[in-house]
Structures are given as structure tokens and as C-alpha cells.
Specification:
single chain; 343 residues; elongated
Length: 343
């Protein structure tokens, strides 16, 4: 087996990552050995590991059919860098195999934000190049591949738009803070960069989750909403209540609605955690007469949230409009945002 650092330097995932950074990164991984026929990953199962091949080969199988092979310095399981999502294919050792593995939680905790951001950026660059190559080759081959190419292009545009909307402003903030660091020797700006980077990663995970077709039921969305409220409101000693009596939690929710409703909800809860002087948040989430209703109301002073939540309210209104829905702000009893969208 080749020297790990030299091997990793060849990997597209670690482009622009220095030797010293790679040495630190190596400590976040654990070596594992597999033998011919061993399965590292099973299609459809929840997985939280990311792998880099040190020696040997793996077969990638979809529904039992071989679709690709990977070898030395290649990587797989990259969705584990975002979240513990279901695996999209089987991965099987082809002969003796040595890999280095880690989880996104451990990798993020053991590496600097700058290195972690480089790794993710490099992976998205690989995806972009792969899609471009597929588009170019499909035009020259069978006409039936055009439909697949268009679907991939649509997905790529969708990802790009979401990344621009949700992460673009954060990355711009990172650039500005980096410039400020050249004028100041304090650690305050470095801390801001760290916070902004982690926020960008959190948004990326939300986008990936929203696009996961296996999390397409109301109960999946409610679990995510509950967890976010816990993370956001508990530190501020704010309690919250959910009213979902009129909701069939086992029913499927369209991906477009799921994504935008969650992002509206996330914006509203974030605004409350930052600006509200109340201590209770009531969330109503229900469906009736082919419409979905989401209401988020606190018991604080309406003026506090109105004066400081301007940009967030505009973002929520725009997302409701993309769903052909209605967005209202009410101040008669605390501060409330309400969204109603057709199903």
C-alpha cells in the first residue's frame, strides 16, 4: 500500500489541501480491511460512513447490476459528509480491500472549517464535471439518453439555485470576513468565519434532506421541524407546542412543498429565537380542503419581531408565492406568521 498522504494527494477530493492539512485530516479516519465479496454498503440502508480506498477495488451495484468500479484513491459514501442518508447502491469488495473511513460528525469535528469547505467544494466540482461530460456524450449517442440528460440537468439547476439562495449570502459573508482578517489580528473575525461556515454546512444538509425522496411523508417533515425547534428554542429557554390534529402524518408530501415549507418554518423559528421577547411558541401544521396551513406564533411583543425580521419576512413571502400560496403576518395576539398553500 502506498504512503497514505501521497495517495490522498492524488485524489480529486483533496485538491488544494496541503500536506500538513492532509496529515491532520488522516487522524480523523480509521483503517478497515475487507475481503472479496464483503459488502461495505447496502442499498437502501442508513449509512453514516465515508470511505477512501487505500488499496484494492470495489464494485458498485444498483439492484444487483454492476454499474461502476472504483480503485485506489477513489472515494464513495460521500453523502455521509452531509447527513446519515440511505445508501443509493451496494458497494462490494473485489478482492482484498483496504479503506480509510470516517463519519461526517467526526470529520467536521477533527478538521478546520477551511479544510472541510475545500473538501465539499471539490466534490461539487467533480459532480459538475461529471454532469457536463454526461450531457456532452448523450447528445452524440442514443436519443433515449436525452431524457436522462435533461433530468440530470434539471436536477443540477435545482441544486445550483438552492445553493445560491440558501448559501450564497453566507459565503459572501465569509469572503467579507476574510478580507477583514487581513486588517485585524483579533480572533473575533475568525470566530465569525467559523460560525458562517458551519451555518453553510447546516443549510447544505437541509437542502440534501429536502431532496431525498425517501423522506417524503409528513411525519418525516414533522420530525425535522421538531428537532430544529428543539435546537433553536431550548437554548433560549423558550418552550414550543405542535398542533397537528388535522394532519395525516403517513401521507406523502410533494418534494417542492416539503422543501419550501420547511425553509419558511426554519426562517420563522430562527427569527423568533433571535428577536422575540416571549417564552412560548405555538406551531399549527394541518391539511384541510386540499390546502396546507402552517402557523407559527409566539407570545412576545409584535414590535420586536416586526422591526428586526424584515428580510426574513420577505424571504418567507417569496417562498410562499413560489407555491402559489398566501403569506400573512398577524400581530393581534403575539407575533404570528401564517402560510396557506394549495395541495
Amino acid at each position: 500500500m502506498k504512503e497514505p498522504i501521497a495517495l490522498w494527494k492524488r485524489a480529486s477530493l483533496f485538491k488544494d489541501v496541503g500536506v500538513h492539512e492532509l496529515a491532520n485530516l488522516y487522524n480523523a479516519f480509521t483503517e478497515e480491511v475487507f475481503y472479496d465479496g464483503d459488502f461495505l454498503v447496502r442499498e437502501g440502508e442508513i449509512g453514516n460512513k465515508f470511505y477512501i480506498i487505500s488499496s484494492g477495488k470495489v464494485d458498485i451495484l444498483k439492484e444487483g447490476v454492476l454499474i461502476a468500479q472504483k480503485g485506489e484513491s477513489d472515494y464513495f459514501g460521500v453523502m455521509a459528509l452531509f447527513d446519515n442518508s440511505r445508501r443509493s447502491a451496494d458497494v462490494r469488495a473485489n478482492g482484498k480491500l483496504i479503506v480509510m473511513s470516517t463519519t461526517y460528525q467526526f470529520l467536521e469535528a477533527q478538521t478546520s472549517d477551511v479544510v472541510y469547505k475545500k473538501i465539499l467544494s471539490n466534490h461539487f466540482r467533480v459532480i459538475q464535471n461529471t454532469v457536463r461530460n454526461m450531457n456532452e456524450s448523450a447528445v452524440l449517442k442514443q436519443p433515449e439518453k436525452l431524457e436522462l440528460t435533461n433530468a440530470i440537468e434539471e436536477l443540477r439547476n435545482k441544486i445550483s439555485a438552492d445553493l445560491h439562495d440558501e448559501v450564497g449570502s453566507i459565503l459572501a459573508g465569509i469572503a467579507m470576513q476574510t478580507e477583514l482578517m487581513t486588517l485585524s489580528s483579533t480572533n473575533q473575525n475568525a470566530e465569525k468565519i467559523s460560525n458562517l461556515s458551519r451555518k453553510a454546512m447546516a443549510n447544505l444538509r437541509d437542502i440534501v434532506w429536502a431532496m431525498d425522496s425517501k423522506s417524503n411523508k409528513y411525519e418525516n417533515l414533522l420530525d425535522r421541524m421538531y428537532s430544529f425547534a428543539e435546537d433553536c428554542l431550548d437554548p433560549n429557554q423558550m418552550t414550543f407546542q405542535f398542533d397537528t390534529k388535522l394532519l395525516d402524518k403517513s401521507e406523502a408530501i410533494p418534494e417542492r412543498i416539503k422543501k419550501n415549507i420547511f425553509l419558511i418554518y426554519k426562517e420563522a423559528i430562527t427569527n423568533i429565537s433571535k428577536h422575540s421577547n416571549g417564552n412560548l411558541v405555538k406551531i399549527v401544521f394541518q391539511t384541510a380542503n386540499d390546502k396546507l396551513l402552517l402557523s407559527i406564533r409566539d407570545n412576545g411583543s409584535p414590535a420586536a419581531s416586526l422591526n428586526k425580521g424584515g428580510l426574513g419576512l420577505s424571504n418567507m413571502r417569496l417562498r410562499a408565492q413560489t407555491l402559489s400560496g398566501k403569506f400573512e403576518v398577524r400581530t393581534s395576539d403575539g407575533f404570528e406568521v401564517m402560510v396557506v398553500v394549495p395541495l
